[in-house]
Amino acid sequence: MILDFPQLISQWETLPVHVFTAHEKGEILTIGAGTASGAVSGAIQGTASGAVTEHWKWPEQSNVDLSMDWKKAARITAGIDVGSVSSQAVVLLDGKLYAWSSVRTGSSSPDSALKALNQALKNTDLTLEKIPYVVGTGYGRVNVPFAKKTITEIACHARGANYMGGGTIRTILDMGGQDCKAIHCDEKGKVTNFLMNDKCAAGTGRGMEVLADLLRIPIQEIGPLSLKVEEEPPPVSSVCVVFAKTEAIGLLKSGWPVEKVLASYCLAMAERVTALLNRIGVEKDFFITGGIAKNIGVVKRIERILGISALNSALDSQIAGALGAALFANALLEKEERGKS
Amino acid sequence: MIANYGYTDGSGEYYISINTSFCAECQTHPCISACPQGVFEMITDDYDEPACSVKDSFRKKLNYTCSTCKPARKSSESPLFLPCVQACVNRAIKHTW
Amino acid sequence: MVVAGMDLGAKAIKVVILSEKGVSAKVKLFPDLDMAQSARKALEEALVQSGTELHELKRIVATGTGRSAAPGKPALVTEPLADAKGIIALLPLTRTVIDVGAEEGRGVKITPQGEVVDFAVNEKCAAGSGAFMESMARSLELKIEDFGEISLKATQAVPMNAQCTVFAESEVVSLIHANTPKSDISRAVHDATASRIAAMTRRVGIEKEVALIGGVAYNPGFVEALKRTLSLETLLIPDHPDFIGALGAALIAYEQAVN
What we know:
The complex is a heterotrimer.
Chain A: H1 5-8, E1 18-21, H2 27-44, E2 61-64, E3 76-82, E4 86-93, E5 96-104, H3 109-120, E6 133-137, E7 149-150, H4 153-165, E8 171-175, E9 180-185, E10 191-197, H5 205-215, H6 219-226, H7 241-253, H8 258-280, E11 286-289, H9 296-306, H10 320-340
Helix pairs in contact in A: 2-5, 4-10, 6-8, 8-9
Chain B: E1 2-9, E2 12-19, H1 30-34, E3 40-44, E4 50-54, H2 62-65, H3 83-87, E5 93-95
Antiparallel strand pairs in B: 1-2, 2-5, 3-4
Chain C: E1 2-8, E2 13-19, E3 22-30, H1 35-50, E4 57-63, E5 75-76, H2 79-90, E6 96-100, E7 105-110, E8 116-122, H3 130-139, H4 144-151, H5 165-177, H6 182-202, E9 210-213, H7 220-230, H8 244-258
Parallel strand pairs in C: 1-4, 4-5, 6-9
Antiparallel strand pairs in C: 1-2, 2-3, 6-7, 7-8
Helix pairs in contact in C: 2-8, 3-5, 3-6, 4-6, 6-7
């Protein structure tokens, strides 16, 4: 039958709307809506006031192998990886790891590159002028003024992982601050298939930082805490970080303990990145690099979903990109020298 | 090398996958001019090989950029009607969505 | 005969009460975590406004993401069906409906009878929804009501790189630091959202007239941005655009009750 629409919808324009709120208001809800996101974006720019505790930041680090002597080295090369959140520098002597550092990226990429290199060399008398070949990589790679060449982070991570984990490595997962890379490589560390997702924050370090800041838990503690659940909860259903945050607040309000929320969030992130890995195909050996490699809560869950363990390395997983860049620098310098002789 | 440019977000997976091992032998690179949006460019990759790639400025919005070539919902069933896929005789270009 | 249509959205519950005398209540309620209880309260308030007793209510039809929590054993319909039914009653020339809500965007192609031909939806990424614009307004320290208005004063089109809400927050902060006027940033945000919504709608094919519904339709900046992106002279916007889903549900309820 045909309905008499005009009659049914009479007064549509004129009848006022009545608005109500459900009385209950959540304390956590206000954190989620305002300060958390503000603090994250503010802190990234280095403008957050001193009062804000930055739970999401990894500490700065550096190391030098004092048993080596740079003055005896035939070739000194360096790689600088300027990432969105942190920057790393690696210095090699004849292709062997000598010094490295990981520092926070500031607002200027050239300054961050220099800061990383100086941090790596702080306990040595080696200086930038004595390093003939520097390769820049990472998202800020075009802004490393003293780099002779820039190489994509995909190629550098594969090369670095090949050094750190050995020639048997075929699959590399790199979870950086602002992107996630799945790489397949050959026995020489040459990339054969890759995928990089830097469009969406889900599955990146930033996705985890948003949670750390929301719950006010230092980022180093998230992984271990998330493993303290007796039974694994289902993953947070939203992929999108914005919606996952809302969901996490809801779960907390409904009485879930923090560990359970963390477990649910870590599992969602693990499922998310394994989907990316499966797109390029997972083959042993498997290696994880980047900041999230330090989050045992995510790593353990990725291993469980894939049914394979990630190879361990004595070296800090965050330096893979810079290490690869330095290895490229070493090979390029060698090639140059051969060309001259 | 198989290069996947694009992204996964909450709404789906959007990748253009390029098998760049064909690019070295290819003389004319018809894919570059085939795309009405100018998505592709030739680069020299990290191993000094010529390679077709998706321009950086398009990598985060392929779903939106390619929507003009994909008006029908089930375009994935007949991918050959996409100009980029059709242009490459080696069928080195694939869309995942 | 009195019927109710309910739209249980991500951010608000909307209720419309209809009878042959016309619309007798339009109620919006912002729920807490207990969706079922909030929905019950919304329906009760709507009955009070319309001066109707619960037992007089012949039928309830619910739509929206939270529709399973609606009270009184309602019939459930999908959002595209409700959108189509609601818009065709108010603006019969509509062939394409674009619905942008708090957490999802939707493009629906409809027949002159208000039947759904095809639809596309973006429900799992905040970037194509009202949530994106709210987050950006917050980063700009602007009230959401002023956000669209300000974008109309933009003098230049600044590009925005980030597509993700989380990354866009920091990009907006750097634009502010670079002394980019808030009006220009605001326009960039609106243009970016409009381009996502347009791309989604193109998947179903855009046929005129095009109508915009959902809470975002109140935002003049978004309306202009969407017109620009779709190269449209006119974009139809009904009165109370955020209530169209609830109206559609109520009209379906009436139809079902009569039959």
